[in-house]
């Protein structure tokens, strides 16, 4: 599939067929993630592909429990609405959990720290390079999956239970969950979504 076509056609898919995903396809998709650019080529990412239905259900339950807990603690009942767009990953044949190891060994960051800059200021002045790198890898996953006929959805809402999911999946503490990407054959064809007009977001300075 031509790249521009894949970029324009890809849609977030939230309903999947049961059809299993061959391991070779999963390997090809994560291989594409591996070739994303990353700050100083640090490749501060790790991908855990969960196929196990029991574990997917447990992950989803952790998200539901966390929403319930926060909803009760805060009295904000509308939080309950988050459940639908936070938990459908358990309906996909596989879900890719994307982990990031924060990248803090940069010289400039060290200088900022020695000068007493706050972590928030440092991230602002460094441009959140590790998050940007993870984003590039995730987009490679989405586009490669689409080109192979799979649907995906980039999901950050489940991060509400990130520490609990990290413990369930048994990853080392230094790795932080940043996104879940359910993947499978789409259950239906999706209509195109909209985007802001190009001229609203583009400025060219001659
Ligand atoms: C960083 C990020 C987080 C997202 N988190 C969720 C999510 O938790 N749940 C969900 O249903 N969609 C999520 N989405 C998908 C967006 O809602 C979707 O990309 C957007 O509405 C545009 O639709 P499209 O992907 O079909 O073009 C997320 C997308 C991004 C980039």
Structure report:
The chain has one domain (19-76, 85-187): NADH Oxidase (3-Layer(aba) Sandwich). The longest helix has 22 residues, at 53-74. A 4-stranded antiparallel β-sheet has the order 1-2-4-3. The protein has helices spanning 3-9, 23-34, 53-74, 82-87, 107-114, 119-126, 129-147, 162-169, 198-201; strands at residues 45-50, 94-100, 151-152, 176-184. The chain has 9 helices and 4 strands; from the N terminus they run H-H-E-H-H-E-H-H-H-E-H-E-H. It is an alpha+beta fold. Bound molecules: flavin mononucleotide (FMN).
Q: What's the layout of helices and strands?
A:
Blueprint: H1 3-9, H2 23-34, E1 45-50, H3 53-74, H4 82-87, E2 94-100, H5 107-114, H6 119-126, H7 129-147, E3 151-152, H8 162-169, E4 176-184, H9 198-201
Antiparallel strand pairs: 1-2, 2-4, 3-4
The structure holds flavin mononucleotide (FMN).
What's the gist of this structure?
By secondary structure, the protein is an alpha+beta fold. The protein is built from 9 helices and 4 strands, in the order H-H-E-H-H-E-H-H-H-E-H-E-H.
């Amino acid at each position: 599939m031509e790249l521009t076509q894949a970029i324009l056609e890809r849609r977030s898919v939230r309903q999947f067929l049961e059809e299993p995903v061959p391991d070779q396809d999963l390997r090809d998709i994560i291989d594409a993630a591996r070739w994303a650019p990353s700050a100083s080529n640090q490749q501060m990412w790790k991908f855990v592909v969960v196929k196990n239905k029991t574990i997917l259900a447990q992950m989803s339950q952790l998200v539901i429990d966390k929403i319930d807990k926060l909803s009760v603690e805060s009295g904000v009942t509308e939080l309950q609405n988050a459940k639908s767009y936070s938990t459908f990953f358990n309906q996909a044949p596989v879900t890719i959990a994307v982990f990031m190891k924060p990248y803090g060994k940069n010289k400039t960051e060290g200088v900022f720290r020695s000068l007493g800059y706050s972590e928030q200021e440092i991230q602002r002045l460094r441009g959140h390079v590790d998050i940007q790198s993870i984003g590039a890898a995730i987009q490679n996953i989405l586009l490669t999956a689409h080109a192979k006929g799979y649907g995906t959805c980039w999901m950050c809402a489940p991060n509400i239970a990130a520490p609990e999911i990290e413990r369930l999946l048994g990853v080392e503490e230094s790795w932080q969950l940043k996104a879940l990407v359910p993947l499978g054959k789409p259950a239906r064809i999706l209509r195109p979504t909209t985007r802001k007009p190009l001229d609203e977001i583009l400025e060219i300075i001659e």
